[in-house]
Amino acid sequence: MDALLYALETAHPKPENKPTTLSEEDIAGLEENFRKLLDEVCNLRETIERQGLAIGVIARDMEAECPFFTEILNAVCEFYNVTRRDIASARRTMNLVRPRQIACYLGRKLTLLSFPEMGRLLGKRDHTTILHASRKIERLIERDEILRDDIDVLTLKISERVLARKLTGRVA
After folding, report:
1. Which has the closest alpha carbon to 115: 59, 98, 124, 70?
2. Which residue from 104, 98, 107 is spatially nearest to 67, judged by alpha carbons?
3. Which architecture characterizes domain 69-168 according to CATH?
4. Which pTM was predicted?
5. What gap in Å lies between CA 132 and CA 136, rounded to an integer?
6. What are the pLDDT digits (tens) for 120-142?
7. Sign of the CA dihedral running 166, 167, 168, 171
8. Residues near 83 by Cβ (< 8 Å), separated by ≥ 6?
């Protein structure tokens, strides 16, 4: 270890601490460069603020186009004649499992929510449960035409709710 430190010190000797004197011309140049740098920082800050506002508008517009997860849950519950309390429960009966899985699938496809966020809204479930449910429905859709039609109908109902919310300014 000492040999390594010695090698580094001899390869890159420390600079001597000599006082540096600057001419008035050097100082004027530094002041000018500092002013230019300050102007660039201010311009950059303004650009970031403008872009931040634009990004906020885009995000708000995207959010307005997306259904709320509660809208998805309400549509699924209505379609399968179950309650939101049932869907969020720990019960694993088939009449609850399938609607719960469909809600996860539609939440993944139609919202900007993360799996952990959906899990919290579905009875504090783990994000991997949401992922599994979503993937399961994806697989089933490929071979089950009735399920595919059900999801198409649900997607239309959810779209109607989003449109109603946008037109009235209220949650449908």
Report:
1. 124
2. 107
3. Orthogonal Bundle (1.10)
4. 0.63
5. 6
6. 989 899 999 999 999 999 999 99
7. negative
8. 77
